[in-house]
Amino acid sequence: MKRRYHPAKINKLENKSKIERMTSSMYNSIQQFNEFGVKKIEKEIKNFISERKDFADLVLGLREELFELGKNILTEVLEDMDEYIRNSEHRKKSWEIVRKDKTSLLTSFGMIRYNRTYFKSKKDGKRHYLVDEIVGIGPHDRISSDVVINAIEEAIKSSYRKAGEKAAYMLLSIKIPHFREDFFPT
Asked: Which residues pair with 104 in a beta bridge?
């Protein structure tokens, strides 16, 4: 996908202090993981040893916690980048804020939900989610390219049947929300 709004145009993100502010978002996820995730992992390991569970149970239990950390980091990074763009002096000269929206994207870690800002160009009136364009998420993408790449790699390595079985296993373990839950959350 061709990017219409290159990251370098956002007032030179290479500036170290700005990058540090944006990357500090992942520390919130890591702190939360240290507080809660580590305890859950310890519990998984204790259950594995005391209940003589199968090794696959341990792997799946650990995977769930680690994938949750990955989803939290991805969400925070996207939302912090969006906030940076909203507050950018360069953006204020060229783009006006239309609204904020929530969207979902399926990644290899599972479904993430994040807030993003819809902008309108002062030059030509066209509207864009700038954070999505910067990171390479297309206007109608609902599946991250890493998921597609994994599926293609698996299809190349495996027979169709084996790839289908693995894809079904991966999708079932990701816990994709149902259509109704997206529109009528509980």
From this structure: 113
Which string of DSSP letters, residue by residue, matches 81-147? HHHHHHH-HHHHHHEEEEEEEEEEEEETTEEEEEEEEEEEETTT--EE-HHHHHHT--TT--B-HHH
* Residues 141-166 as b or e (16 or more Cβ within 10 Å = b): eeebeebeeeeeebeeeeeeeebeeb
CA angle 142, 146, 152 (to 5 degrees): 105
* Cα–Cα distance for residue pair 92/83, rounded to 1 Å: 12
Q: Residue 79's closest CA among 135, 120, 14, 30?
A: 135
pLDDT tens string 172-183: 665 544 443 444
Q: State pLDDT tens for residues 17-56.
A: 555 655 555 667 676 666 766 778 888 888 888 887 788 8
Instruction: Give this prediction's pTM.
Output: 0.68
Alpha helices, DSSP H only, in 3-54? Answer: 16-23, 25-32, 38-50
For residue 175, the surrounding DSSP H or E stretch is none
* Pair type for strands 95-107 and 127-128: unpaired
Closest residue by Cα to residue 47 from 62, 27, 67: 62
